[in-house]
Amino acid sequence: MATNVTNSTAKCSYEPDSPTEQVFKCIAYFIIMFGSLIGNVLVICVVIMNRQMRTVTNYLIVNMAVADLLITAFSMPVTIKLIVTRQTDWSNGVFSDMLCKIIPFSQSLSIASSVLSLTAIAVDRFLAIMYPLKRYMTFQIAYSIMAVVWIVGIAVNSPILYAQKVVLARGKWRCIEKWTPAFTEEASKDFTVVLFVIFYLVPLLTMSVLYSFVVHKLWVRKVPGNQTVENHMRSQKSKKKVLKILLAVVTLFCTLLASRVH
User: Ranges for the G-protein coupled receptors family 1 profile domain (predicted)?
Assistant: First the structure.
């Protein structure tokens, strides 16, 4: 599940792009990297600088923005370098070995933090809708959740820092995933299963269940007072809008995470 551009490149046969494809890929990655940098920084600044935006949900969104910046800072520049130079070689040295470990680790940590933050947002929305008169998610709890998100992400993904190594293969230095000698080769599959369960299956089931309760609660809720046709239509339109948003969140979670991991 841990993403590794350099690892996948080393294992798969690499067919060079044409000059036109190379230019378009570079432009596309620059646009994505620039958009991600500006967009996530703006999200962070808006929430921090605007007092009205300082809510528990927005703080969790800021946590996601920080996680996304990890990929922007560590992964995208390396990918652009690979496209421009068309070189997948690594040098033998401490700095090269550190990059080999940090890049895939930061990618996987970014995904883990984003997923856990999305799950925390689902819990926050569930509590807010199901128990509107009680405030369960305070700022202190939100801070604790964000700390737990990063601690869990770092702890679960820490084996990547051991497995990623720069080794000599076919006369060239490659950044690959190698679990020996501390573990067997089967450790790679076991680690992938652990990541899949913790950062995909459990969050997906949690969000699906919680949002299902939210949708049901909103759908069966009766608006107090006399219901006119106009009010009824407005209420139905609002419910459908909420349903579409929640379905979009779960769907995007599945598709985006599947596209960022392998």
Answer: 39-262
Beta-carbon contacts of 41 under 8 Å, excluding residues fewer than 6 positions away, are 65, 69
Each residue's pLDDT tens digit, 31-87: 988 988 999 999 999 999 988 888 888 899 899 899 989 888 888 887 787 777 766
Question: What count of Cα atoms within 13 Å lies in the side-chain half-sphere of residue 165?
Answer: 12
CA–CA gap between residue 154 and residue 89 (Å, rounded)? 28
Distance between CA 153 and CA 226 in Å, rounded?
50
Rounded CA-CA distance 61/77 in Å is 24
> Can you give the pTM of this predicted structure?
0.78
Low-confidence residues of the chain, pLDDT below 70?
Answer: 1-17, 86-89, 220-249, 252-262
